[in-house]
Amino acid sequence: MLLIASCNKDKASNVTGDWLFPIAKGNLSINSLSQLKNLNYTINIPAQSIGQPVNIPVSSPGLQLDHVGPFPVEITDWLHRLDVDTLEFSGSLNNIFPIPIGAGTVVTMRTSRDTGISNIAGTAVVSSTILPNQAFSFDIQVNKKTLGDSVYFFLDHFNSPAYNNLVFATSPTVLKIKLKIITASYAEVYTNKTFSSVDTADFSAGSTDNIGSRTNGTLSDTSTSGIINVFTDNGLPANVQGQLYFLDDSKTQVIDSLFVSQLKIGGGLTNSAGTTSFTNSQSTQITVNRLKLNHISAAKYVVSHFSFNTIGFTGPYVSVNTSAYLGIQFTGDLNIRINF
Amino acid sequence: MKFFQILLLFALPITGIAQVNLSDIQDSHNSMNASNFLPTYLGDHVNKFGISLMNTYASLGSSFTTFQDAKAYLTSDQITSEMIGNSISKLDRNDNMVSASLDIALINICFNIGGKGKKPAATLGFGVNERVEVNSVFNDNLLVLAYQGNKQFAGQTINIIPRFNGMAFTEYYAAAATDFELGNTGIQIRPAVKISYLSGQANVNMSKDNAISLYTEPQGRYLDFGYNYSINASLGNDSLKLAGNTFNLNDKNYKIGAGSGLGVDFAVRITPMKSLSFNLGIMDVGSIRFNKQVVNMYNHSSYHYEGQELTFSENQTISLDSLANIAKPNYSYEAYSAKLPTRLIFTANYGMGYVQGKKEGYYKHQFSAIYLQGFDNYLSATTRAYVAFGYTHSFKNVFNAGINAGVGGVTGETVGLLFSLKAGAFRFGLNSNNILPLIIPSAGKGADLGMLLALAF
């Protein structure tokens, strides 16, 4: 009879049913944190750091400096330690000095202030002379390093040819660094800190035919009411607040958000190795109406915003390894009217 | 053969029933059509030679939908949820059937040969029949699921795949029957056989162990799909083509078609006395091997679905369409065999008021009974036994009129009528096993109609 009904396009028909189904599921771990995917630093290297005064003429038979620096940067204000499996280390050295920076100069990232070899986390060798007002760019991959809360940049083996009566300005040479943690195996996070992770994804709730009608659009579904259940299993040693924002195709206009207020998820516990020792499981129900579902259906992008805090956790820091994660699953318990 | 392919495709959603036609058996004018499913009737009430042309039998029906329901769907301005719910409420939990058939006896010829006096030594028959049969068997899960959603099945595993079968083929047959007396008892025995070369034209074949199961976790956190199905299809070209409003028989050729096979009907008649006879037969034993334009669709796997995977990383594409893609089948293109809808038939005929005419005798009153038993719910066969009784009154062996009633089979209760006219060598008639929808639309779940057009000398 449904077949007969569906074949008769001139007669509006519908059936209404209660559907229970999983919508989406994912895990958040230290490797999901967007903040660690886009760490940008700008380091000013003044003329004084290469032993040259500013605003007066100077001459030199040439510069040969073993180390220029260190130039320390704090990775984040909440990381105490980060064991990196793979790190993308990229950047540029923009030469503002009136002298060339010779080939063989090395941009070096160290895990501590001392100028040894064992603490070198990554290096980029200048392959050809960087003339004044020119830049040198690099992009290298670093594997298996342990970082503290800060890293230290140097210009090793800095060299420059002889010059006469040149004036160094106060404007520094600029070293721009970008760190992208591809994968990390372990992290220590200071307690009583807050950090966040924000991602934007393309989104499609599915066309009417792709939902399964296969009727070239003659069958449409409209949900009149229902519940979206959010099941969370938090094995991370952090309390979490989350929200999903649905954006239109301009990517700037928020159509709706999933939660009326933020979803609050209690933290789990980990041991000193960073492995989950307690998972905080909870479920939350979101009542949705047809308007919200229409908004979700119309969305082209979804922004996930998760705010983590370690407030109230004991010790100077908490540990987390890759086995610890926050699992989130969305399921639908929807009353759906299918129109023929 | 576009006509039959189209019919096959369009007949799938039509409610239908396919039965052996009792009206043929109870009408002495119609033995040529009766012999199509019980070859013991071959040559009955024919002197030397008989021929029939384009005799057509069509049947439609279901086990759950009345014609009144169907009419409501077709004529109402709006098909309401209540109407659909009412129909679904009539479904059997496990076993619902719809089927349709179209038999066109293009040409049937029989000869009575030899023998002493008026009694022939044997009867031979030849003919060509076009047959199209489709059916579907399903539990109520799929429709209930579509109508009310899966929440009601939380914590349960349900099978949601319906079973479809359809076959169109041409039957080129030769048949033979003979009589002998069992000792000196006076009991006549008439064995008969019909052997057919079958030219398959189109087929959709699903075995009864096909399954698509669905388990809904009580909180909806996952769905488990189990796939175990094989669907074979062969939709080829054939010689019989629909050209305008006429059938073109000129292209008929044994070599073309989507497959070929052999079929056999066995039967025996026992006549303990002249007025009483019993027929026992097995029809449609055999199969067709389809080897042209074959598609095998299969999936023997399981799928655990917990939702669209989220990575919470930049540049991910989240598409909630993914559930629609997990049931896609695998394809191969291997030849396969499709069996015929084998059935066991038992009939009985008892005549009263014998009148000896100039050329042949006849009974004024003819009582008939049929028991039909399929071995599978497949095409025109059903495991639900069908029992029917009929009475035919013969007016001077010129005009026969009869009535029959039955129970069982796909549709349950049936009531039928027959009329036939014998004018010299010409025989005309119309009959039915089931006109219940015309009498009680709210009870009739099926209908059929057969025709008689023959010459007999």
Walk me through this protein's architecture.
The complex is a heterodimer of chains A (340) and B (457). Chain A is mostly beta strands. Chain A has 2 domains: 14-33 and 191-339, Jelly Rolls (Sandwich); 46-52 and 59-189, Jelly Rolls (Sandwich), CATH 2.60.120. In chain A, 6% of the residues lie in helices and 59% in strands. Chain A is built from 3 helices and 20 strands. In chain A, strands 2, 4, 7, 9 and 19 form a 5-stranded antiparallel sheet that branches. In chain A, a hairpin with a 6-residue loop joins strand 12 (239-247) and strand 13 (254-257). Residues 208-220 of chain A have low confidence and may be disordered. Chain B is mainly beta and 457 residues long. Chain B has one domain. A 14-stranded antiparallel barrel of chain B has the order 1-2-3-5-7-12-13-19-20-21-22-23-24-25. In chain B, strands 10-11 form a two-stranded antiparallel sheet. Chain B is elongated, with a radius of gyration of 25 Å. The model of chain B is unreliable at 1-18 and 237-256 (pLDDT under 50). Chains A and B meet through helix 1, strand 1, strand 10, helix 2 and strand 18 of A and helix 4, helix 5, helix 6, strand 15 and strand 16 of B.
Brief digest:
Chain A is mainly β and 340 residues long. Chain A has helices spanning 2-7, 209-213, 290-298; strands at 14-28, 39-45, 57-74, 79-94, 106-110, 120-125, 135-147, 150-167, 173-190, 194-204, 220-234, 239-247, 254-257, 263-265, 269-270, 276-278, 280-289, 301-309, 317-321, 326-339. Chain A folds into 2 domains: 14-33 and 191-339, Jelly Rolls (Sandwich), CATH 2.60.120; 46-52 and 59-189, Jelly Rolls (Sandwich), CATH 2.60.120.
